[in-house]
Every structure is written in structure tokens, then in C-alpha cells.
């Protein structure tokens, strides 16, 4: 019987430190720019009306830009490391890089050193962004994969929330650089937790099978999916047969199509494009611009510095709760339906919030400001519970084992590449054109909704299907190939040698 054990749950929870590291590293800039002593330490002008403030916005933009540039490289490197060294050793390397980056970032005494630290932490965040959802998907049973792989998005949002509250707590230490250095130092703690935890979690069974370690893979599968009522662990043996069958198919494809099949084979190229645009879409609805500049946004709505930090931390806490709730219904709701509802909800809520922000710019009423903040909270509810929790899972699911790390790395690189553009522009855009900057994200949100409507199949068991919601979550990872043009797939009922050749649609 398909199930997961308490050991399976503990493995996922331990590995979530990698996701928490990712989220905290993404969010710490928010708390940092809200600390007055950061400006003093790096010799920046904090007054928006002063002549030198243009340079300050440039440095804030650069702090985000270099982080996401490092993240893009980290994504590409992370996929290669996961295949070369294994999933666990891959995020072990990421943890070490992250600890080094956090140390440099914390100890920075000038602008250049701080930017170097941001590049290195971005490199580590890119690696964990790729490594964690891949690992979660490969150690989770099919019917619970949405819940367990959704731990990545939940961990990221918890990291965001923690960064917000740590930053708020340190705001009251306004007379020394401790106020901004300590929140940055906490990032190293999450890296240390990930590094330490990596010695207690098992390697991915799918990676072990690809290295010929079938016996070890079976032992891990039995521990992960042990059912006390099934003393012979039938489900674990069935899953191993699936993995071995698919591996033989994959090796045949490598022989016939070479190492670049991710781009040369139509079925894999289609998945690469889907994954790339899915991760790009998650950022094109403006979520990270709001997150990374929420202190400046809330201040522009008339909130004090302290009030902006409190609202920002509450916003991310609400997002984390929404994400956790979304993970619990992901497998029942289905990835496609969840994403479409999420995009529609985000566009509607952000449209209303943008209108209220525009009205506030002409009529500085606290009523408009408060209502705008409320709709931003509704916006992030749709994003966290339906988009964020599912996008990482989908990207990890749609690629077969032999190119999962490569495909995921290219897809997640889209997230960082997109954010390099939007976040780098945001500080200057908000200071010059204000709310009009948000209109870009509203238009792009509509475009991505249309793209998913026509291009994303559902990943759920067929017995849940009805009408145009073609539900197919609950399929084993090795069974998902059929959704993308493969007419034959691995089967647990066949020995590997009996498998026929895979035919793909052009």
C-alpha cells in the first residue's frame, strides 16, 4: 500500500532547512534597508529628499540585482552538482557557500564588501532553490507529493516571515550596527542547520539507482514508505521497479539523442519551456518586488518605519500560513486548477490594490492606505496558497529522473533572471513613476494565466478527472512522461528488459 512513514516526514522537515535558508536569504534585504544604522555603516543617504538619495537607491537596487545574478549561476551550478555528487552532497555544498556569504554580508564595512556577500549568498540560494524541490519530489510517495514537495514553498515563506520578525526585533537596537548585522548573521544559522542535517537524511533513491546502487535504494525506499500492515514492503519494491524501468528507457534515450536531449527532443524541450515560463510567471505577477521593497512601499503609504516593518513581517507570516494551508490541499485540488485560480486571484487583488495606491498618491487618506494593504494581504494569500506551493512541485515533477536536476536548474534560473530585471528596477521605478510600475505585472499576470490555460497538463490520478480539469497528480514520477508526448512509459508490472522503445510526439 502506498504510504509514508514518520521517517519520511522527518526527512522532509529536516531538509526544509534548505528552503528556509532560501527564503531568509531572499527576504533579509527587506529588514536590512529598514534599519537606519545600515545606511550609516555603508555611508548611504537615508533621506529620500536629499540629493545623495539617488546613489542610495542605486545601491539598494544593486544589492538585489547582484543577489539574483548569483542566484541564476547557483541554479545552473546546483543542477550539475546534484547529478554529479548526489542530491544530498549538492545541498551540503550550498550550505557551506551560504555560510561564507552570510559571514561576509554580516561583517561588511563598506558597500563593495556588502555586495560581494550578496553575490555569494545568492549563489547558495540558487543552489538550494534547485536542490530542495528535486529532493522532496524524489523521496515522496505519489499521492502525498504535493504536500511534501510543497514543503519547499512553505519553508521559503517561513524564511521570509522569520527575516521580517528578526528585523523588527532588531529595529529597537537603533544606536549600533547590531540592528542590521544580527539579522544577516542569522542566515548563517540556517546554513549550519542545513549542513548538519544533511548528514542525517538519506540520498535520493532515484539517484542511487542511476549509480547502480539498487540495494541501497531499496533499503531507503522501505524506510521512507514503510507500512506496518505490509511486512514485505510491496509498495517500495513496486516503486523500485518503476525507477529501474524508467532508467533503462532514459539510458536508451541518452545513447540515441546525446546529452543535450533536454533541448533537442520535442517532448523534453516542451517541458523546459513550460518550466521556464512557469517560474518566470511566478515573478511576473510582482510578488518579489512587493516583498523586497515592502518597507519602502508601506512608507510611501504613510506608515512609519517601525509600522512598515511590522506590516511587512505580518504580510510574510500570513503568506507562510497560506502556503502551508495550500500544501495540504495540493494533491486533492490538482496543480493546474490551483495555479489558474491563483493567477486569477492575484491579478484581481493586485488590480484593486494598485488602484487604491494610485488614489492614495492623490488623496493621502489612511483609509485608502489601510484598504490597499488589506488587498495586498489577499493578493499574497492567492499567491502563497495556490501559486508558490505548486510551481516548485510542478517543475520537479515534469522532468524524468535522468534530466530532473538539469531541467529544474534551467527552470529555476528563470526565477532569478526575471528578478534581476524587476528588482533591480524597482527602487528607481518606485521613486519615479510609483504605482504605475505595478501595471506591468498586472498585464504579465494575464499573459501567464493564458499560457498555463493552454499549455499545462494536470498531474493527478485519472480517477479524479472531470471535464476540462484533466487531473493527473498522484502519478508516480516515472508515469508523468505520458502527459508530454511519450506513448509508452515505465511500468511496475514489467521487467526492465521487457520494455519497448519510447515513442514521442513531434
UniProtKB/TrEMBL annotation:
Matching SUPFAM superfamilies: MFS general substrate transporter
Ranges where the Major facilitator superfamily (MFS) profile domain occurs: 11-460
Top-level taxon of the source organism: Eukaryota
Keyword ATP-binding attached: no
Listed GO MF terms: carbohydrate:proton symporter activity
Subcellular location: Membrane
GO CC annotation terms, alphabetical: membrane
Membrane topology note: Multi-pass membrane protein
InterPro entries: MFS_dom, MFS_sugar_transport-like, MFS_Sugar_Transporters, MFS_trans_sf, Sugar/inositol_transpt, Sugar_transporter_CS
Keywords: Membrane, Sugar transport, Transmembrane, Transmembrane helix, Transport
Family note: Belongs to the major facilitator superfamily. Sugar transporter (TC 2.A.1.1) family.
Name under which the protein is recorded: Sugar transporter STL1
The organism of origin for this protein: Lachnellula hyalina
Amino acid at each position: 500500500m502506498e504510504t509514508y512513514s514518520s521517517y519520511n516526514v522527518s526527512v522532509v522537515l529536516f531538509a526544509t532547512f534548505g528552503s528556509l535558508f532560501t527564503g531568509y536569504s531572499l527576504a533579509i534585504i527587506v529588514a536590512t534597508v529598514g534599519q537606519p544604522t545600515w545606511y550609516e555603516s555603508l555611508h548611504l543617504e537615508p533621506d529620500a529628499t536629499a540629493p545623495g538619495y539617488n546613489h542610495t537607491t542605486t545601491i539598494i537596487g544593486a544589492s538585489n540585482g547582484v543577489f539574483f545574478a548569483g542566484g541564476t549561476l547557483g541554479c545552473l551550478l546546483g543542477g550539475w552538482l546534484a547529478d554529479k555528487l548526489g542530491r544530498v552532497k549538492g545541498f551540503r555544498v550550498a550550505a557551506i557557500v551560504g555560510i561564507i556569504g552570510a559571514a561576509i554580508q554580516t561583517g561588511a564595512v563598506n558597500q563593495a564588501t556588502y555586495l560581494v556577500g550578496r553575490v555569494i549568498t545568492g549563489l547558495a540560494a540558487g543552489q538550494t532553490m534547485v536542490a530542495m524541490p528535486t529532493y522532496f519530489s524524489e523521496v515522496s510517495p505519489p499521492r502525498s507529493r504535493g504536500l511534501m514537495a510543497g514543503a519547499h514553498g512553505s519553508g521559503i515563506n517561513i524564511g521570509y516571515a522569520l527575516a521580517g520578525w528578526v528585523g523588527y526585533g532588531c529595529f529597537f537596537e537603533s544606536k549600533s550596527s547590531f540592528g542590521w548585522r544580527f539579522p544577516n548573521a542569522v542566515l548563517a544559522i540556517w546554513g549550519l542547520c542545513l549542513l548538519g542535517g544533511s548528514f542525517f537524511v538519506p540520498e535520493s533513491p532515484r539517484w542511487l539507482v542511476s549509480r547502480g546502487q539498487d540495494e541501497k535504494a531499496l533499503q531507503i525506499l522501505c524506510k521512507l514508505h514503510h507500512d506496518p500492515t505490509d511486512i514485505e514492503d510491496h509498495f517500495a519494491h513496486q516503486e523500485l521497479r518503476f525507477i529501474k524501468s524508467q532508467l533503462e528507457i532514459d539510458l536508451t534515450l541518452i545513447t540515441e539523442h546525446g546529452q543535450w536531449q533536454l533541448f533537442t527532443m520535442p517532448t523534453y524541450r516542451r517541458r523546459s519551456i513550460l518550466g521556464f515560463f512557469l517560474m518566470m510567471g511566478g515573478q511576473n505577477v510582482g510578488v518579489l518586488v512587493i516583498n523586497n521593497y515592502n518597507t519602502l512601499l508601506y512608507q510611501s503609504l504613510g506608515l512609519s518605519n517601525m509600522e512598515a516593518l511590522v506590516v511587512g513581517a505580518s504580510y510574510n507570516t500570513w503568506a507562510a500560513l497560506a502556503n502551508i494551508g495550500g500544501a495540504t490541499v495540493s494533491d486533492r485540488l490538482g496543480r493546474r486548477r490551483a495555479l489558474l485560480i491563483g493567477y486569477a486571484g492575484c491579478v484581481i487583488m493586485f488590480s484593486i490594490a494598485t488602484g487604491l495606491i494610485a488614489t492614495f498618491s492623490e488623496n493621502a487618506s489612511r483609509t485608502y492606505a489601510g484598504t490597499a494593504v488589506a488587498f495586498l494581504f489577499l493578493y499574497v494569500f492567492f499567491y502563497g496558497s495556490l501559486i508558490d506551493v505548486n510551481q516548485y512541485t510542478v517543475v520537479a515533477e515534469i522532468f524524468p529522473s535522468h534530466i530532473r536536476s538539469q531541467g529544474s536548474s534551467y527552470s529555476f534560473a528563470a526565477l532569478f533572471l526575471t528578478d534581476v530585471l524587476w528588482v533591480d528596477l524597482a527602487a528607481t521605478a518606485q521613486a519615479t513613476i510609483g504605482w504605475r510600475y505595478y501595471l506591468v505585472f498586472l498585464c504579465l499576470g494575464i499573459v501567464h494565466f493564458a499560457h498555463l490555460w493552454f499549455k499545462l497538463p494536470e498531474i493527478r490520478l485519472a480517477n479524479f478527472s472531470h471535464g476540462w480539469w484533466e487531473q493527473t497528480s498522484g502519478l508516480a514520477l516515472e508515469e508523468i512522461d505520458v502527459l508530454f508526448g511519450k506513448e509508452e512509459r515505465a511500468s511496475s508490472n514489467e521487467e526492465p528488459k521487457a520494455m519497448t522503445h519510447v515513442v514521442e510526439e513531434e
